[in-house]
Each structure stands twice: as structure tokens, then as C-alpha cells.
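Thread: arginine complex, take 2
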Amino acid sequence: MSHIRGRFQKAADKKVAEYTSSLLFDWRLYKHDIAGSIAHARMLARQGIISKSDSVIIVQGLESIEQELAQGKFKFKAELEDIHMAIEARLIEKTGEAGGKIHTARSRNDQIALDLRLYIREAIAQTVDSVRELQRALVNLAEASMGVVMPGYTHLQPAQPVLLAHHLLAYFEMLQRDAGRFNDCRKRADVMPLGSGALAGVAYNVDREFLARELGFSQVSQNSLDAVSDRDFVLEYEAAASTCMMHLSRLAEEIILWSSAEFDFIELDEAYATSSSIMPQKKNPDVAELIRGKTGRVYGNLMAFLTTMKALPLAYNRDLQEDKEGLFNTVDTLMASLDICTGLIATLKVNAEGAARAVERGYILATDLADYLVGKGEAFRSAHEIVGRLISYAVKKGKSLPELSFAEYSSFSSLFGEDVYSITVDSSLAARDIIGGTAPKRVAQAVAAAKKTLGQGS
Ligand code: ARG
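Output below.
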């Protein structure tokens, strides 16, 4: 743009122009850029910095440019290095001298800080909606599979029986914290930076509070140097997104395990699975694998931008332009992953028999047996030892716990009574009757509470 090369005699080298341009990716901010410019033009007129009539011309011009952009009619010129310049140049083309006044009392440095905050505010609202959808799918599946028992694991070894619903609600809790992190990030993004100018604040009588109200911000930034160079809100979104992707990746991993022949707890819907090009028997969990796999790039975007920010002197530096591609990629990846994960959960079929078979394998009631002895007066540590010996005996004999005779039990402790046979998977579940436990009654309450949180009533 000729007017901003005013001090220069030469045009930028073509390679340099390409290297420094952000237009290929920051065009995505056009709506926010125009919203900011409209508010700015109105404020300039209210404050008598430009005339009312110029402001009307500018606002109309910006509105028609927004339409051109929305309809794909806007001609992007490679020599305009970013979306701010592309829109300003078009405005001047359309409105002449009036358009030349839009950049009064403003810099691209406070302009991009504003655009990005507007963008992230919208992204957060959409992200939280998508998190809620996934939570809803998890709660629906939990409710529909209330009677299904599966082994709970530690170290991926069958440990104690749990309800599948209880397991699914663990992910509801993780996502609840994720939504909280995004909402926290929104608070810090909710600061209006215009008026900071290039770095020192502008030398005009601007009304920053008016701008904040017009653009729906609850505060204005308190330090111009900070406002043009702060990208904490980008990092916070990326950190929250990384944690959320980590949760999705854990869920994806369990879906992959559970759909294997070895576990056989669930069957994936054909619409959410792929076939093998050579092995006809296979139904592959590629969708879940990609959720797990894409977690890497979201972590990468966070690390990349943290590294970019490190040791930047105040105030604006062009390094900051590197904020956008990673952020957009993170938003796109997270939103798509949440959406796909919701579909995966909503369509999979639970195989209650497969899960029940896994509960039968292994000595999953061993803890309950130790608790039984504690109930009869044994100290937990020695109860643990007695049951350990008993299990090793049963393993040698190839017997399950119910297959052991009373005489066999009694040879390990005189405290065993006939009621030892009343220890079952059901009694084990029911015994965990505490807040946060897997007793069916408690899990039903947790489902109801989760639905209430999601605004579905109980
Ligand atoms: N494209 C720039 C960015 O994304 C906009 C701000 C440019 N400011 C400047 N002084 N060159 O950061």
C-alpha cells in the first residue's frame, strides 16, 4: 500500500513481501476487523475527531466490504500484507478521502490485538458449546447403560468392578473442568485494547469506554504497552485446548481398547469406523486414533507460540504475527475432534455381555474379600495378606473364588463364614455407597446431577 511505504523509495522485494505477509491466514479475522473499525469510526465521530458524514460513509463502506468478503467477491491483492491493510485499501478505493480517515487514532498493533480478542471470544463460546455436546452424549450413554458392569482398571489390570456409567461420567468431570478453563480464559480475553495505538496510547481524545460497550467488552486495557504485546489469552486458550485434547485422547484410547476383540466391550458404528484394504475381517477405530493423534499438533501449537513469546521485548514485535496460524489450527482441530468424538459416543453400541465376561475373568472381588475379613475383625494389612495367599492358591488350582469350597476358605482364616459366598459383583458395587462411588444408587444420582448441570433437568 503506497501510503504506508511513504518513507521508502523502493517496493518490498517480492520474496520479502511473501515472507512477511499474513493475508493467507488472517483473512479469517475479517468480520472482527470490520466490527472493530465500525465501532472505531462511530467513536471518532462522537468525539468530533472526524465528521458525522465521514463516519456514515466509512460505516456504509465497511458494511459493503463485509458483504463482498462474505460472498467471496472481495479481491485479495498479494501486495497488501494483512487483512487490516486489505480492508483499509478497499475502503479508500470505495470511499476516497473519508476512508483515508479510518486509521486516525489507531495502529495495526492495537487493531490486531482487538481482532484477536474478538475472535477468541467467539471461539471460546463455540468451544464450550461443543464441550457441552460431548458431555451430553456421555451422559446419555451412561444413562442408557446403567446396568452394565465392567472391570475398573489400575495399571490396565482388572482391579475392581465398576459401572460403565461411572467410567463414562469420569469423562464428564474432565470436560466440566475444560469448560471452566475456557470460561476462565474468556475473562482475561474480555479486555478492550483499542486506544493503545502503536504502543504509547493515542494522542486523541478517544472514548475507550464507548468502544468497549459497542464491542461488548467489560473492561478496557490499563497499559498501552501491555495491551499491544499481550498474547496471554492466546496461550491460555491453547493450554486449555491442550488439556481438553489430552482428555479426548484418553477417551479415544479407551474406545480403541474397548472395541478390540480382546476387550469386546463396545462395537463402533460403521459410520464411525473404517475397513482394512486387505483384511476383510477388520473394523478399524481410525476415527478414535486420529483424535488421539491430533492431540500432538495442539500441544505443538502451544509450545511453538510459548517459544515465540519468550524474551520478546516490549512492545509490539512482528514475531507476534506467529500467533495466528497455530491458534486457528488449534481451534479447528479441537472443534472437529469434539464434534467427531460426540458422534462416536452417540453411535457406539455397548456389549454388556462382553464387559460382564471381563468382570468374571481375574479375581476382581479380592478387595471385597479382604474388606469382608476386616468386617469380621481382622486388621486390613493381614486381611490383605490372607487374601493374597488364598488367590495364589486359587490360581494354582485353576478355580475362581465361588468355586472354592468352604473348607478351602477356612484353611486360610477361621474368620470366613458361609456368608463369604454372598460377596458378588453386585454386592461389591453396592458397597461403594459414598459420594463419588460406583454404587448404582450413587451413579444414578450422578447422572441426574450431570443432566442438571447441562440444563436438561433431572
Ligand atoms: N499482521 C500483523 C500481525 O499479525 C498486524 C500488525 C502489524 N503491525 C506492524 N507494526 N507491522 O501481528
